[in-house]
From TrEMBL:
PANTHER family: DNAJ HOMOLOG SUBFAMILY C MEMBER 17. This is DnaJ homolog subfamily C member 17. Its main location: cytoplasm. Keywords: Chaperone, Cytoplasm, Nucleus. It comes from Sphaeramia orbicularis (orbiculate cardinalfish). It is found in: Cytoplasm; Nucleus. Residues 9-74 form the J domain.
Amino acid sequence: MAKDLLKMDLYGLLGVENTATTKEIKKAYRQKALTCHPDKNPDNPKAVELFHQLSQALEVLTDAAARAAYDKICAAKKGANQQNT
């Protein structure tokens, strides 16, 4: 898993809760991808990057092992942040 993925809230990027099913994640991805696709936004230089991030989020969150690893890392980061406050 790429380190820059760990800096992002993949669930927030797709607009779903962390309890979302694979079906809900795929549906949210399709909706976002349709509006953010670079072909639909040729004048937006950030469209390619956003579309790439959406694709990475889909890849991680629909793979059970990758999602479990992502959730574990996020939980550890959240716990560390709570201890520092």
